[in-house]
Amino acid sequence: MCKVKVSSKDLPGLYQSADSCSVRAQKVYFRSLMWYLLLLIVAALLPYLAKYDAMGALASAVLFLVTLGILIFLRAKRPDDIWYNGRAVAESVKTISWRWMMRADPYHHADTLDSVSRDFIRDLRKILSHNENLSHSLEAHSGVKEPITDRMRACRRLSIQDRLAVYKNYRIQDQASFYSGKAEFNKRRASRWFWASVALHSLAIIMLLYRIKEPTFIFPIEVVATAAGAALAWLQAKKHNELNSAYSLAAHEIVLIDGEALSVNDEKELSDFVVSSEAAFSREHTQWAARRID
Q1: Residues with Cβ within 8 Å of residue 166, at least 6 apart in sequence
Q2: Which of 48-52, 63-67, 93-97, 200-204 has the lowest mean pLDDT?
Q3: What is the model's pTM?
Q4: Vertex 127, ends 117 and 79: CA angle to 5°?
Q5: CA 199 to chain centre
Q6: Is the Cα torsion angle 1, 3, 265, 268 positive or negative in sign?
Q7: What string of DSSP letters covers the chain?
Q8: Peptide bond into 106 cis (omega under 30)
Q9: Number of C-beta neighbours around residue 204 at 10 A
């Protein structure tokens, strides 16, 4: 039984602020993209429903103007950049916070708490200064929370084995649950959107073949084609297949990390174990951000 429980709420205020900022920006980005794709489909459908109606054509033109506005909004505000930058800041803060709590390098001097606390706060400032473009999006009420919480101090005061137990339960197992759950979620969503795209493409092919038999019968093939393209665009934006592979790999790597804890018996071994583990945790996010830039 762990003597200290550590959750994300016990991390520095900068983590809370960056995390909520990232979540908000992600929602804005995907909601904007969702409305953009849906309105494109509706705009393509209106001329088919009202072929000789000027109001139908006008409504379709208005919808295309709205979708253009959404594109301009996404380009100008760049919520996807805020999403990724916020996630990067939050993960960086989480990593150094766990290193500080575990007395891992570079915060391993147990007899100079004031000194390592100053070093930790200095590193928080560096993270923030390297992401100044995010400052306008950070929440003020979360950011004023103390940088080193009472729970963090309590964890740092524990013995080696107790700290290791806390790390395994509230860091390693937490990450394992996160990655395995996300891998399964993205696998299901990737399959769902793939088959939706296949169904729409198949429907368009059937309509075209039927038109050969009945040339006078008009099908909304353009609308179906637009919907198929929208489904594919949504799948690519969500990157369910890539995320499934990345999260599955991370989950398996964490299982191996957990096994390495058996060899931890002193401060040096605990420090090396935590540093190695945190490097593995941050690797997936770093690689994902790099793929996004590419």
Answers
A1: 2, 3, 4, 5, 6, 101, 155, 158
A2: 48-52
A3: 0.83
A4: 140
A5: 29
A6: positive
A7: --SS---GGGS-HHHHHHHHHHHHHHHHHHHHHHHHHHHHHHHHHHHHHTTT-HHHHHHHHHHHHHHHHHHHHHHHH-HHHHHHHHHHHHHHHHHHHHHHHTT-TTS--TT-HHHHHHHHHHHHHHHHHTTGGGGGGS-HHHHTS-SS-HHHHHHHTS-HHHHHHHHIIIIIHHHHHHHHHHHHHHHHHHHHHHHHHHHHHHHHHHHHHHHHH-TT----HHHHHHHHHHHHHHHHHHTHHHHHHHHHHHHHHHHHHHHHGGG--SHHHHHHHHHHHHHHHHHHHHHHHHHHH-
A8: yes
A9: 20
Distance between CA atoms of residues 252 and 160, nearest Å: 26
The confidence band for 94, taking pLDDT boundaries of 50, 70 and 90, is: very high
- How many beta carbons lie within 10 A of that of residue 257, not counting itself? 20
| 272 has pLDDT over 50 | yes
Long-range contacts of 69-73 (CB under 8 A, 24+ apart): 70/32, 70/35, 70/36, 70/39, 71/36, 73/32
Do 79 and 22 contact (CB within 8 A), yes or no? Answer: no
Per the listing, tokens 């929440």 go with 139
CA dist., res. 290 & res. 122, Å (int):
26
Q: In angstroms, rounded to a whole number, what is the distance separating the alpha carbons of residues 115 and 105? A: 13
- Residue 289: the pLDDT is 55
Length of the chain: 294
Angstrom distance (rounded) from CA 192 to CA 122? 46
Query: Could you state, in order of their start, the residue ranges of all structural domains in the chain?
Result: 9-157, 168-265
